[in-house]
Specification:
CATH superfamily of the largest domain: Galactose-binding domain-like
Number of strands: 18
Strand content: 25-35%
Structural class: mainly beta
Low-confidence stretches: none
CATH topology of the largest domain: Jelly Rolls
Mean pLDDT: 95
Radius of gyration: 21 Å
CATH architecture of the largest domain: Sandwich
Number of helices: 4
């Protein structure tokens, strides 16, 4: 595709994964790559047109986060439809960074200074919420016992405790024993993350199919645990671990590697805040409950309880991939 494009999305926009898919495709492959522009605010999908609000549940933003996007559209049309100007009055990428709550301009997205850093999962085998010893840090794991939990399709982990789950305090969900919780120490310096976040799990189940569900959260000094990213969770249904073209069921007990997309963020974890990872196998009703049978989901009337194991040792590490803005470290 050879044409200029203005890409507008939000960090809490359910359709952001699609917007970023087209942004990356055009920015990397289009003959008009130098004429692609990105604007992303702390917005839900309707707010990408309406201009935003100063809060989303527990999240709060500055007045400057509320933007009138129509002048941006008009400037783009003046440049590329009417031809009345030679340049646009904004950069290739203008991003509102949540956490530090300010707009930043970049010559590319992801920024050239972003480097993927791995935040590793650790525990003594008791990362379940009721007795959690789950830790996140930058050191590679050694010989560590795995963590285990039980996924019962008749009692699924909820995606929300009420209200828009992108703006709720996720602590109550993390208190269930079928949720693993890993938390960093309080940060000493600001950590700015801009780009696509992934979580890699080495895991096994005794079922033929199951879901692996992850959340990356910002734990505030007052304890509130707020999720970053546009959707309620990142999720990978195990039968599609090799792609969506075909179904490949699991061999019970076999350890597999799962790379789960958490989608794009521009967020600053501030000093005194902590980074948290939650791992589960359901997020109902945001995603349909996996019955763990491997049967066709549309017609399945059976279910089995799945016993899940998450590994984080030297040979089978589990970790969060964060695109860290290097100059801000």
């Amino acid at each position: 595709l050879d044409f200029p494009a203005l890409h507008i999305t939000g960090w809490f926009d359910w359709d952001q994964p699609g917007a970023m898919f087209y942004w990356r495709g055009m920015a990397e492959h289009s003959p008009a790559a130098d004429h692609q522009y990105l604007v992303a605010g702390p917005w839900t999908h309707p707010q990408t047109w309406a201009g935003g609000q100063t809060s989303l549940g527990e999240w709060s933003f500055t007045e400057s986060s509320v933007a009138d996007v129509k002048p941006i559209h008009l400037a783009f049309f003046d440049r590329y439809l009417k031809g009345t100007t030679d340049a646009l009055p904004f950069p290739r990428a203008r991003l509102y960074v949540t956490g530090e709550d300010r707009w930043r301009d970049f010559g590319a997205y992801p920024p050239a200074a972003s480097r993927v850093q791995r935040l590793y999962v650790h525990s003594g085998g008791e990362a379940n919420a009721s007795m959690t010893d789950g830790v996140l840090d930058w050191t590679e794991p050694g010989d560590e016992p795995p963590d285990r939990y039980v996924h019962d399709p008749n009692d699924p982990v909820p995606s929300t405790t009420g209200g828009d789950s992108r703006g709720i305090d996720h602590r109550p969900i993390g208190e269930r024993d079928d949720v693993l919780v890993y938390t960093s120490e309080p940060l000493e310096d600001t950590l700015v993350v801009i780009g696509n976040v992934f979580v890699t799990l080495h895991a096994a189940t005794d079922a033929r199919d199951t879901d692996w569900v992850v959340k990356v959260l910002d734990v505030h000094p007052d304890g509130r645990s707020l999720k970053i990213g546009p959707t309620e969770v990142g999720v990978l249904r195990a039968r599609y671990r090799e792609g969506y073209e075909e179904t490949v069921l699991l061999e019970p007990g076999q350890v597999e590697e799962y790379r789960i997309e958490h989608f794009d963020v521009a967020h600053a974890f501030l000093p005194g805040h902590r980074i948290r990872l939650q791992v589960a196998s359901a997020a109902f009703p945001f995603i349909d409950v996996n019955t763990n049978t491997g049967n066709p989901a549309r017609t399945d009337t059976e279910w089995v309880i799945a016993h899940q194991t998450v590994y984080h040792d030297r040979l089978r590490p589990s970790f969060v991939e964060l695109p860290v803005l290097e100059r801000d470290r």
